[in-house]
Amino acid sequence: MTPYEKFINIVDKEHYFDQHQEVLVALSGGLDSMTLFNWLYQAKELLNISLSVAHINHKQRAVSDHEEKVLQEKMADLGISFYSTHYVGSFSEEKARHFRYDFFERIMTEHHLTALVTAHHKDDLTENFLIRQIRGSRLRHLIGMQAVQAFGEGSQSKSLIRPLLTFEKSEFDATEYFEDASNAENDYLRNRVRNLYLPAFEKENPRFSENLASLTDEIQKAMSIVMYSARAYATAEKIDLIEFSREIDNLQYFILQNYIAKFPALEVSKAQFNELLHIIRREGQYFHAISNDYSFIKDRYHFYIEERSKATEFETALTPYPRGDFQEIDLPATGQIVIRKRQPGDRIQVNGIDKKIRRYFIDNKVALKKRGNPLVVVENVVYGVLDVVTADLSKSLKHDKMKRTLYYREKR
């Protein structure tokens, strides 16, 4: 059986393209991606797919512009849509990867393409495992690449397909491709893994790569059990503290990992993760910014992560009564109305007792998130905390004809 025949058998058996007709091929121009393109182009009628190509010129080599031009001309001759872009900014492997996939997603959205196909293969699985081990990745990141996974934000219709994961590079048969001379250099970690570390390990044990693949498979099986055990929390926006506390400690560890993974832009260090787990397990509420964009909140019943931009905001209006479901605070007829954040020493009178607002929050177990809600102040006297409490002074004005009423509700 030829490598192409093997490819067709796998694609047919796994039904990779049954739900996809408009396919985008990530094409670098190297042996791997050119082989993938050739096989897909040869089989496009059989698979009933239409191909487009996306190429990123990373501008890291003198020949990059020439290679882009050759690929563009080749696709024009074949009648294949060709989309390209140039990498900008300081270069790193991680930044380049994010740049590539952001570009792929944009092209797919703009041109209504539903499948992205990449040429990752068996050797990449081994290299990625070692790279992640070296960088100290968690277990969940050592399960290897999936042949098919959802791709893009907020879309279940787009897929990332890697049909070559069972192929070794020695099986690729493209005759026209570009050889990246920088692959022989060891400036980047991936090149060092490929050129130095793997050969050294395979010198000790010729089956080292095979053993790593087997270990990756076992990790994937173990993680599937963990995910099944934590399935009740998979879609939760907030994690119930009582339910969480009933789980064994080791499962709690993975439940929190899975929950944090729902926020791809949030990076949590191992030390920060362990601190969050400790906070969840101990008594007391908690509200703290864990990054520039996210806050971690633990109230009496749940813990959850929230975008800081989603902090509660209020809209307000004075009499006459506005339309809608507004709450109200009665205020004296004169005096400047100030709506502001709480300040040290602020006090409020509730049920005949005058106390610091901070003490009121603690005594009444007010949720931490609400402790930042604005105060309504007239002549340095607090008449209420929005959506928390109304002072006695406001209540005494309820039937007074000489008053003003402030109406408020959460901004929508």
From TrEMBL:
Name of a matching Pfam family: ATP_bind_3
Q: Which GO terms describe its molecular function?
A: ATP binding; tRNA(Ile)-lysidine synthase activity
* Amino-acid positions noted as binding ATP in the UniProt annotation, renumbered to this chain: 28-33
Enzyme Commission number(s) = 6.3.4.19
Class of the enzyme per the UniProt entry, highest EC level: ligase
What does it catalyze?
Answer: cytidine(34) in tRNA(Ile2) + L-lysine + ATP = lysidine(34) in tRNA(Ile2) + AMP + diphosphate + H(+)
Task: Tell me the GO BP annotations in alphabetical order.
Answer: tRNA modification
Q: Which UniProt keywords apply?
A: ATP-binding, Cytoplasm, Ligase, Nucleotide-binding, tRNA processing
Where mainly located?
cytoplasm
User: Domain named Lysidine-tRNA(Ile) synthetase C-terminal: which ranges?
Assistant: 337-395
Compartments (UniProt record): Cytoplasm
Is GTP-binding one of the keywords? no
Q: Which family does it belong to?
A: Belongs to the tRNA(Ile)-lysidine synthase family.
Q: Which NCBIfam families match?
A: lysidine_TilS_C (TIGR02433), lysidine_TilS_N (TIGR02432)
According to the UniProt entry, the note on domains is: The N-terminal region contains the highly conserved SGGXDS motif, predicted to be a P-loop motif involved in ATP binding.
What task does this protein carry out?
Ligates lysine onto the cytidine present at position 34 of the AUA codon-specific tRNA(Ile) that contains the anticodon CAU, in an ATP-dependent manner. Cytidine is converted to lysidine, thus changing the amino acid specificity of the tRNA from methionine to isoleucine.
Identify the PANTHER family for this entry.
TRNA(ILE)-LYSIDINE SYNTHASE-RELATED
| Name of this chain's protein | tRNA(Ile)-lysidine synthase
The organism is Pseudolactococcus raffinolactis
Q: Corresponding gene?
A: tilS
